[in-house]
Amino acid sequence: ATLSKAMADVDVVEGFLPATSPGCFAMAAPNQHYDSYEDYIFAIARALREEYRAIVESGLLLQIDCPDLPMAMHTTGWDDTAKRIGYHKYLELHVAALNEAVADLPADRMRMHICWGNYEGPHHMDVALTEVLPTAFEAKPAAISFEAANPRHEHEWEDLAKLKVPDNKILVPGVVDVKTNVLEHPRLVAQRIGRFADIVGRERIWLPERWCRLELAGPRQERLQQLEDKYGIQGTTENAGAARQADVVVLSVKPQRLERVLRGLLGAIRPEALVLSIVAGASIEKISGGLRHKN
Q1: Distance separating alpha carbons of residues 287 and 207, to the nearest angstrom
Q2: Phi/psi zone of residue 145: left (φ > 0), alpha (ψ -120 to 50 degrees), beta?
Q3: What is the dihedral of CA 20, 123, 195, 207, to 10 degrees?
Q4: CA 154 to CA 191: how far, in whole Å?
Q5: What's the start-to-end Cα distance of the chain, in Å?
């Protein structure tokens, strides 16, 4: 209710609320009551069913966080179920419990998120994405979110291309790495999007419009059209128009054109927006003064 109320006061496309999966809960909370792990995880699923239903009925999108699926083989826990019964049986058991929890909910109002842990480490013990996805595709949520931009797993788009992705599934690739302080170039992000779009089609790639949408501004309409046709990225010849709704504005122009671009953007950038520059030789003071902008 608090999130829905907050959303009503701002211009947003959609809201989502994450919730733990039955398997993720089971990894963190030892069984002290049930006769078996299997009984335990299905009991958790039945308990979480009410939380899942409440999120969907509120109008929010339900994101079920499932790091238990890919992380089981490189982490240790109170039961080490994956090692005890075998990894693939473990995946099937956890997906079956999830499906029981969401049996009466619409698939298109849910997405599942899988990852190998948001920690800065070598990740050399991670299982491959293709070991997880075939079973994850059996889960009811229509969309599957997964890491696709970090050094350990970015290459796996090639392996995904060899899998049969069910027609009723939408891919939500993570195309920006959150474990680095290096600012990835928009062209690199666009290339990552394009790889998955080539595999399943643009209409089956889900990128939230607000916080993942890229918009280009440039003087050549024909070049903007080429980029839109290839990557699905919208473009405009109006710099100020592109900047007005942006959370982050990236300046990438030739130094001799910078002053003209700054004059065109004057007053168009929201006070809370962040301005980044890769213009050669341009100081922060020059850009800040030209835009009359502090961020």
Answers
A1: 31
A2: beta
A3: 30
A4: 12
A5: 32
* Contact indicator for 117, 67 with CB cutoff of 8 Å: yes
Tokens of 275: 């301005």
Looking at mean pLDDT, say which of 31-40, 210-219, 246-255, 268-277 comes out highest.
Answer: 31-40
pTM above 0.90, yes or no: no
For 119-165, how does the pLDDT look when each residue is reduced to its tens digit (9 = 90+)? 888 999 999 999 999 999 999 999 999 999 999 999 999 999 999 99
- E-assigned strand segments in 141-243: 143-147, 170-174, 215-217, 234-236
257/253 Cα distance (integer angstroms): 7
Nearest residue to 108 via CA among 135, 137, 139, 143: 143
Token digits of residue 204: 């089956």
Other CB atoms within 10 A of residue 288 CB: 15
